[in-house]
Design brief:
By secondary structure, the protein is of the alpha/beta class. The chain folds into 3 domains: 203 residues, Spore Coat Polysaccharide Biosynthesis Protein SpsA, Chain A (Alpha-Beta Complex); 159 residues, Thiolase/Chalcone synthase (Peroxisomal Thiolase, Chain A, domain 1), CATH 3.40.47; 159 residues, 3-Layer(aba) Sandwich (Peroxisomal Thiolase, Chain A, domain 1). Helices cover 36% and strands 19% of the residues. The protein has 20 helices and 20 strands. An 8-stranded mixed sheet has the order 3-2-1-4-7-6-8-5, with helices on both faces. It has a 6-stranded mixed sheet with strand order 13-20-19-14-15-17, with helices on both faces. Strands 10-9-11-12 form a 4-stranded mixed sheet, with helices on both faces. Helix 14 crosses helix 20 and helix 17 crosses helix 18. The termini are far apart.
Length: 590
């Protein structure tokens, strides 16, 4: 006898499976012998009602009540109640081919050493469009080994290994793990000729969460079988590196979106009904997907077919622009800007220009997360820019300190909304600060050696654009990465511009708190500067124990109250990119 075991949650697809079986098995007289029995394991729970079984199958069928403990437990209940020499497991969402029953009998006429025979699973995909990620994932069943969508085992083989491991509560790894134990017990597993179709179920909003829960099963397999569990269980390399890379790409865009939405909401723009073509998007930063590409490269080399369908979109920095424009329904001007570590300030300059020129009424500026690859870490270390490892990590970032060792990477996204004064006034928006002046210039030098004269030139130009004299600057958010040469060069430029007033303003280093956020640093630090302007304080520089210049009024290890009106924020990047932005607290202190 052959026992067919079908665990079910009562999905509508069950009817199609049972109808197909009824058409092939035919109606059986109650007193006639049969070589087939059908065991339906009803895993729906209590008070679910009776399962509808076609009349032609009634004499073949026995319904078992499951515990609702998952597919592994349901299949165990089924095969332990089975009377057949062979137990064929079928999912309740497959449709057997018209000749499935005949081919099944042929498949199971296998030599005694064969303990399992897998059917062929076909997954239809849309013909006139590209498949979704969910559809592509389901299509992977066609290449899966020993999956229980249609898998037959000798009952003796199941009994020898104790059946499915019920510690795997999901339909994810329990089939491969069982197959491994059956083969290890001395049985052979082969592929048969019978065929089923596995339609793609509609995806729900929770599909990603359910898929990621499978990581717990992977962790259990690793604990049980060691680091080589994929090889031992005859599983493909898997899509986790790809999933990690895709998730990384998504997380980068998500961080940008989260920052933008917070700024958008904080500016009171939801419901403001600003026309989409009057909203601009500027994303500060470049090489934003370097880590994503790095993580994906090995998977692509080993299995090129697993290159994400949207790789060509995700790999471009403009994916951030497109994502943000879609979320905010922005159809005005938009682009990315880059200037190495000065990218954030370059973004502020270009966003301010868009608004000042009347190209848009408001512009959302996002400093996007930059993730370094191991190659980047090594490259910065070779230049001597990166802080050397060792010592207390909390004390590694030391801008303006005599014991500074280089910059410590940080990762953050931040966003600002810049708006035309008239547009902000019309909707009664709270204005936190203004941007009265800015400047951007180059050193005519592609190397990593900063130039005090070039920095002084843009600082002087920004103050002039704002109509400020040196003695009116209350606060300097310095670029201050903690590099040996960079910090000294920046102080030299401040002395050059501010002259006798160089000791008046507070000089601070936000990177002492955040690390160097690279492309987003200028935006992150503009947010920190506005918070200090409006909050009336100066944040600490906690690791400044031995200042390199006693003439400068550095922020100390703790916060200080301060009445601030005008702030200067600098940003300098490799390749001689120099920027300076003036931020001003509104007259009412808002």
């Amino acid at each position: 006898m052959i026992s067919l075991v079908v665990p079910t949650l009562g999905r509508p697809s069950l009817a199609a499976l049972l109808d197909a079986l009824a058409a092939q098995l035919g109606e059986k007289r109650s007193d006639a012998a049969s070589d087939v029995e059908l065991l339906l394991v009803d895993d729906r729970g209590e008070d679910a009602g009776e399962l509808a079984v076609p009349g032609a199958l009634t004499a073949y069928t026995k319904v078992l009540t499951g515990r609702g403990a998952g597919p592994a437990a349901a299949r165990n209940l089924g095969w332990r109640a089975a009377r057949g020499e062979w137990v064929v497991f079928l999912d309740d969402d497959v449709v057997p081919a018209p000749d499935w029953a005949a081919r099944m009998r042929a498949d199971l006429a296998a030599p005694g050493r064969v303990g399992g025979v897998q059917g062929v699973v076909e997954v239809p995909l849309p013909e006139h469009r590209r498949p979704t990620d969910w559809e592509r994932g389901t299509a992977g069943l066609a290449d899966g080994r020993w999956i229980t969508a249609d898998m037959a085992y000798r009952r003796a083989a199941l009994a020898a290994v104790g059946g499915f491991d019920e510690r795997f509560p999901r339909a994810y790894r329990e089939d491969a793990e069982l197959a491994h134990r059956v083969r290890r017990a001395g049985w052979e597993l082969v592929r048969g000729e019978r065929r089923v179709t596995h339609p793609v179920r509609p995806e729900s909003r929770w599909v990603s969460l359910r898929t990621q829960r499978g990581n717990a099963d992977d962790a259990l397999l690793r604990r049980r079988y060691g680091r080589r569990w994929r090889t031992d269980l005859d599983l493909p390399p898997g899509r986790r590196p790809r999933h990690t890379a895709i998730t990384a790409a998504g997380a980068l865009a998500l961080a940008a979106v989260a920052a933008a939405l917070q700024a958008w909401s904080g500016a009171g723009l939801p419901g403001a009904r600003i026309p989409g073509d009057r909203v601009g998007i500027v994303v500060a930063g470049h090489n934003l997907t370097a880590r994503y590409t790095h993580e994906l490269y090995r998977t692509w080399q080993e299995r090129p077919a697993y290159l994400p369908a949207r790789f060509a979109l995700h790999v471009q920095d403009t994916d951030h622009v497109g994502t943000l424009s879609e979320v905010l329904s922005a159809t005005g001007e938009g682009f990315t800007v880059g200037g190495a570590s000065a990218s954030g300030n370059v973004g502020i300059v270009h966003a301010a220009r868009l608004v000042a020129a009347g190209a848009v009424d408001c512009c959302v500026l996002v400093g996007a997360v930059t993730e370094l690859t191991p190659m980047h870490h090594r490259g910065f270390a070779v230049l001597g820019a990166l802080a050397e490892p060792g010592g207390d990590p909390a004390a590694a970032c030391r801008p303006f300190d005599q014991d500074r060792r280089g910059f410590v990477p940080g990762e953050a996204a931040a966003a600002l909304v810049l708006e035309r004064p008239a547009a902000a006034a019309r909707r009664g928006a709270e204005v936190l600060a203004t941007v009265p002046g800015y400047a951007l210039g180059l050193d005519a030098n592609r190397l990593a050696d900063p130039d005090a004269a070039g920095q002084a030139r843009v600082i002087r130009a920004a103050l002039a654009a704002a109509g400020l004299a040196p003695h009116e600057v209350d606060y300097v958010n310095a670029h201050a990465t903690g590099s040996r040469l960079g910090d000294e060069t920046e102080l030299a430029s401040l002395h050059d511009v501010l002259g006798a007033a160089a000791g008046r303003p507070w000089v601070n280093a936000t990177k002492a708190l955040t690390g160097h956020c690279l492309g987003s640093a200028g935006v992150v630090e503009a947010v920190a500067t506005v918070a200090q302007l409006t909050g009336g304080f100066v944040h600490p520089n906690p690791n400044l124990a031995r200042p390199i210049d006693a003439r400068i009024r550095f922020a100390g290890p703790g916060p200080e109250p301060a009445r601030l009106r005008y702030a200067l924020s600098t940003g300098f990047g490799f390749g001689g990119v120099n920027t300076a932005v003036v931020l001003a607290r509104t007259a009412d202190g808002g």
